Amino acid sequence: MITIGIDAGAATTKGVILLDREIAGYRIVSTAFDFLSTAETLFEELLATSDLRQEDVVKICATGYGRMMVTFANATVSEITAHAKGVNFFFPEVRGIIDVGGQDSKVIVVEEGKVIDFLMNDKCAAGTGKFLEYTAKALEVRIEDLGSLALGSVHPAAITSICTVFAESEVISLRAQGIPRADIAAGLIVNIAQRIVIMARRMGLKEPIAFVGGVAKNSGMRVELEKELDVTLSVPSEPQITGALGAALAAQKPEKRSSA
Ligand SMILES: Nc1ncnc2c1ncn2[C@@H]1O[C@H](COP(=O)(O)OP(=O)(O)OP(=O)(O)O)[C@@H](O)[C@H]1O
Ligand SMILES: [Mg+2]
What we know:
Blueprint: E1 2-8, E2 12-19, E3 22-30, H1 35-50, E4 59-63, E5 75-76, H2 79-90, E6 96-100, E7 105-111, E8 114-121, H3 129-138, H4 143-151, H5 164-176, H6 181-202, E9 209-212, H7 219-229, H8 242-250
Parallel strand pairs: 1-4, 4-5, 6-9
Antiparallel strand pairs: 1-2, 2-3, 6-7, 7-8
The chain binds adenosine-5'-triphosphate and magnesium ion.
């Protein structure tokens, strides 16, 4: 049985092709202005690269912030459920999930892949990947390199701003004072990690804990969260696709399109 999961996220759109219990292909693209056209292009590219025809796909399930816009999907599933299912595929033992994406961060308590409770911060860019993207720009560092740069820091700079706009000015001001870029990068990561740790503690996350979402690719963030939470995090080899994978898994079960 071939199913496709599409995670229409605020920053990126992800697609996973699932052939029974095997990932047959995946793709990650930036979300353009229009969720639907981004998802349509991604879907066509997924089929082309996997040598599949549309009629080979039994069901398409959408998740993510823009899921209701993906009108060619036969079903939708909430992001929380999708991440729980996707993480369970990689790590069946996991009891807690931290997902940090472009627009929000989520902490989910799970048991055998089922959601028990969750907490979501989606009020503003503070505590999310966008905060890191904007401030990395002010630091003139590629987002891919921010984590490794931060790992070289001995004295992380104190970044006090919660608001992204103020944090950008703070970065510029710290650079003007001659503070090493590694220390500023580490300060930015500490700033975000502290917000995530508060959420994790509030939810009483228990080990083993998985770290997913695009921000899980940031090595500095992984190390900082592990230090603060005093745990070893389980990170899939591609942490950005767990939502899309979970949607593809949900598509294997007969479910009606819902407004959830
Ligand atoms: N290679 C990378 N290295 C470090 N960080 C990365 C990398 N790729 C993406 N990111 C981070 O991941 C974020 C996007 O994560 P993700 O794709 O999970 O978001 P999303 O699912 O679109 O957003 P949301 O779940 O909030 O709707 C970016 O803002 C960036 O901070
Ligand atoms: Mg997401």
